[in-house]
Amino acid sequence: MIVDLASTLEGSSVGNQTVEFMKRLGVECTFFSSPVSNLVKWRRKVVATFNETAGYWEPCPHHIAQEEHVLCLLTAQEFVDMVLAPEDEGDSLDLHVAKIKSIHHACKPIYLIEGLTAWMRKNKNSRNRAYQAEVLRQMEPSNPDQPARQSRKKTNKPETTPPVDDDEIEDALLQLQITHSCLIHHTNAAAESAEWIKNFTEHVSTIPYRRERMEGNDSAFCMDVGQVKTGEDKHDTFVKMLQEVNRVT
Measuring CA to CA, how many Å separate 125 from each of 68, 155, 164, 166? Predict the structure, then answer.
């Protein structure tokens, strides 16, 4: 595999940690100039193709193929700014997705959003403080002859940033998934973002093999190996099947 990172990630915490992860995996890592910031894409060194007639992989001339998945790393504030931006402006979320798809045709975008959970928790606290400040302001007596000890009471500072409705953020996440068919994953810090770029690299590398395994399975239901306990014989398998039923020990 070859991982191509946008030049905006070069020298950053995520970029440096991703390069180290790729060195451990033996994956080649390069930087490229991208019109979209913090973009990650993958290429594959192809040395074999699957012969569907014969049912096995056979060698082919070495060439490099572009993968269809493209990952975009966004901070929570960048994502919120795109959600709140008017649709006719170039910074809106819809135009950002359209820009990625126009540059990388027929791609499957992955949005890696860093710190959105903490941002929404902070936003909720900000709304609560604004509500409490408004209630306390309305409870303050308007009589100028109020006692001095009440006038010396500590007043709450007003919120400088207007709170954002959580439903608006949730609707934007749903729109990414349903309307634009994007994959979304949340991380909490730069180290976790770099680790998930590594995880996605490992996942993308196995897509052709898992696809051939799924297409070669005639059943309508198929699961990866290791997800279901397998029995040693018919009796053991039957016992394990019974144990999957509720209240059966």
Answer: 40, 18, 11, 12
- pLDDT tens-digit map of 172-207: 999 999 999 999 999 999 999 999 999 999 999 998
List for the chain the helix, strand, coil content (%; round to 5): 45, 20, 35
Determine the Cα angle at 59 with ends 62 and 43, to 5°: 40
Q: Is the pTM of this model over 0.85?
A: no
Strand order through the sheet with 56-75: 28-32, 2-6, 39-51, 56-75, 108-114, 183-187
Distance between CA atoms of residues 201 and 209, nearest Å: 14
CA–CA separation, 26 vs 24, rounded Å? 5
Q: Strand, coil or helix: what is 134?
A: helix
Closest C-alpha to 168, from 221, 120, 105? 120
Which of left, alpha, beta for 95 (phi over 0: left; psi -120 to 50: alpha)?
alpha
Tell me the three state secondary structure of residue 227.
coil
Q: Which helix (H) or strand (E) holds 47?
A: strand 39-51
